[in-house]
Amino acid sequence: MTSTLPGVTTEQPTAVPAQPSHARGHRPERTDKRRLTVRPVIRFRRSRADLLLCGALLVAILLVQGWNIQHYPTLSDDEGTYLAQAWAVQEGKGLAHYTYWYDHPPLGWMQIAFLTWLPSLFSPEAMTVAPMRFAMLLVSAASAVFLYVLARRLWLPRWAAGLAMVLFGLSPLSVVLQREIFLDNIAVMWMLLAFCLAASPSRHLWHHFAAGLAAAVGVLTKETMLVVLPALLVTLWRHSHRDTRKFAVTGAITACVLVGLCYPLMALLKGELLPGGGHVSLWDGITYQMSRPGSGFVLDPGSGSYGVLQSWLYYDRVLPLGGIAGAVLLMVTLRWSVTARALAGPALAVVILTAVALRPSGYLPAMYVIQGLPFLALVLAGGAASVTHAILRRRRGPREGRTLTTVRWTVLAALAATALAVVVPRWYDGNHTALTADANAPYRQAASWMATEVPDPSRARVLVDDALWLDLVHAGYEPGLGAIWFYKADLDPAVTKTMPNGWRDLDYVVASPTVRRDARDLPKVRDALEHSTAVAVFGDGEDRIEIRRIAQGDGIADGNRIAGGDGR
Amino acid sequence: MQGSADGQGGLPRPALAEGGHVFTSVFIAAISLALFWMAAFTLWWQMHAWRTPETLAATRFDRPDGGRESSFSLLLPARHEQAVLEHTIERLLESSHSGFEIIVIVGHDDPETAAVAERAAARDPHRVRVVVDTHEAKNKPKALNTALPHCTGEVVGVFDAEDQVHPELLTHVDHAFRTTGADVVQGGVQLINFHSSWYSLRNCLEYFFWFRSRLHLHAQKGFIPLGGNTVFVRTDVLREAGGWDQNCLAEDCDLGVRLSSVGKKVVVAYDSDMVTREETPGSLMSLLKQRTRWNQGFLQVYRKKDWRQLPTRGQRMLARYTLMTPFLQAFTGLIIPLNVGVALLLDVPVTIAFVTFLPLVTAMVTFVFEIVGLHDFGRQYGLRVRLTHYLKLIIGGPFYQVLLAGAAIRAVWREQRGRGDWELTSHVGAHLIREDVHA
């Protein structure tokens, strides 16, 4: 047993080797009780079985997530946004190639810039959404390993830790979402690291401090991670020792707050903390995010949130619904189940995230579920471990008959078989699609058309969605005012100013589904769509991408191209 | 370039690129990083005891098993301290250990204190003796060296005339000597009267962090500046080392440095029940004088270069850093506000401005841990720490920093001028009045 005092004899050769249980002789019963509740420490790095299991699962996850990653799922607008801003950071163009307006803290795409920096050095034209999805494999891998370590640190048995890792990495829902360049995936990685540090078996003050740092980085990567912090605090509290807890907890909170304050500090140093004439501000950014129109109650079939929920459940029902059920089970059995108490932190995270999603008038983005995935997986695996333990061990006497033991194992086998029968076919279908489908052919064809068919890209002005923007930049279009994020034509004064004649100052619109959908609220984009004709169409139906040339009186209005290069 | 396509659109502070500004930026960043690492290391060491529950448990005294091996000679130098001396001797005599003698050292020019000491010796002639120090110019190391030849015990212990010593302490120290094979045992010393004034609050907390935490790190690393009292050394080791350095203003620190530099084993133990209780200096001026003396002593120890014999590079670095700490601390206290001012007012790039905030960040973390430390201090000693005390701690922080900086500068100045005389701290016995608060 390596439980309580490895440090006293090995690390403290010169200090008095006090036996702690004796040192405070005047209250031995309290101290002893504490010592006894400490469980064996799991040393991940020294456990061959853990390393082998985790390594094998990791290879499987990377294969499933990496295979066909460029072709499925459909390139998302948000991926394009973040990668383009990462590109701007790499190119030394500041925090974004348009004015950074405090929509999100910039740390997320700074990390993307770091991750994609080396590959983009070797082949700059690979800095587009589809190829750079491979960078997300690193994030997925780190998250999956952290999750396994966390599960073991929360005293789950090895098989349950492996189960959590499989649920987290191989659920079709995870496969689809973790392939995409979303800030949430990076934030989840940091938050898992924070949980691992909070549950550090050595209960080291600076591990707990580092947990606060990692949590703050997670929040600065994606601010919605804020809501998970209470769950982290619960984990930290449970895993710190009574004698050092006040330092550990305050240390972690201080670290988290101080790093978190970097964001307003940055705004302050740039003179953009508070609103003022002629500049963006952090205050305005927060106000905008808080006042985003709600997408309705998630269980109301007519609402936008309901649609988002259905899109998650389309990929996988087991992880989200099973995870929530697991969290409820653990919360209810908190008094009796050791596993439930060990997993109190992750279970609380699931409860909080569910409660936030159930707000009647909240805004529910499609990637919201990403931050819940690891906790759902942990809690579901923990629930499974709890149920297994109950079936095999509950009320088992020292001399239990073979019959009863056989019954216990039979029940367990039946349950496991049922679970597999439910899960495997659905997951097979979902992951089969993820491994074989090509959803991005229209995007590739559109990018290639724009690169080869437009006579002089460097002088053309094109409205394009974020996902294709970098392809156009690599094809020679001018970033920002040549290749234009379509909504900036209406929303960014610096862009609008260069279009005095409205749609007439443009040459092309690459009308992807996103552009057509959002054009309803963007008059200039709508005009451009109306006054243009499709010259090439890729794909069909709702998902088609049209390349539309702006109709000019005499063909292409040469005089209006890039309205006077001196204007910028 | 106007418009936003260059990404820097609305920035009111243009990034500087010209030569002079680059130099300023690099200079500021370098200083900030140096300060950051200094503060970070200090913080890391200050929090040593609370690293893990196991570390904390190991800082306590082991519980004695009832055996007895060593006999003690307890040295009690007293100078113009007739008010507190009698009480201290009585309390020492209550000790549960069976083999010890008390040697009171008084000056030949101090009849009042001598009278008190003689009275005590007359009451218990077997356990109390008086030694008269006849040096013209008096100081503590001279007094201790005067008494050293008279010691008959196997272990020499040092206390101050105003100390309150716990009756169980000697038994615990005896046990520590026996079980660890140590050459030196340093017990805890704690200032208790945190309620007296704003600076005594901070002073108490300094002791708390030093004896509760930092000294254990030094013992572990094999380089330790010992404390002035509640320190126990094997008599033969002490004689071999030639006693205390009479010309050093921090003879306690010097002894520790000399003994650990030749590889003697030092053990530190801290138990809130067992610490020696002391009082803070009675006025701001006497605190300043005391601190000046220590700083000057640290400087002298640094310049004696005994620490260079330490076997490993890491130990020598620790020694160098520890002995220089008062001066680095003074420097830090002055630079941090300056740095933040530079970041906010001067036109430096945002990244550089960020770097200038790093030392402030570590200072804030230290601050928070001090607040928690004050809470823990109150808990350990059963003292009621009120909200006003926390406020005093926070508000007093910068002023205390100024005091420390003043003492550091004063020490350098005095050392340069060659003034090596003792500015003795006088004691009024504030901690004695409060003694029953928790005992």
UniProtKB/TrEMBL annotation, chain A:
It is found in: Cell membrane. InterPro entries: LipidA_mod_glycosyltrf_83 (IPR050297), RgtA/B/C-like (IPR038731). It holds the Pfam family PMT_2. Keywords: Cell membrane, Glycosyltransferase, Membrane, Transferase, Transmembrane, Transmembrane helix. Residues 103-255 form the Glycosyltransferase RgtA/B/C/D-like domain. Residues 1-32 are annotated as: Disordered. Its main location: membrane. The keyword Protein transport does not apply. Residues 1-13 have a biased composition (Polar residues). This is Glycosyltransferase. The lineage of its organism: Bacteria, Bacillati, Actinomycetota, Actinomycetes, Kitasatosporales.
From TrEMBL, chain B:
Keywords: Glycosyltransferase, Membrane, Transferase, Transmembrane, Transmembrane helix. It comes from Streptomyces scopuliridis RB72. The keyword GTP-binding does not apply. This is Glycosyl transferase. The chain crosses the membrane at residues 22-45, 323-346, 352-372, 393-413. GO terms for molecular function: glycosyltransferase activity. Belongs to the glycosyltransferase 2 family. It holds the Pfam family Glyco_tranf_2_3.
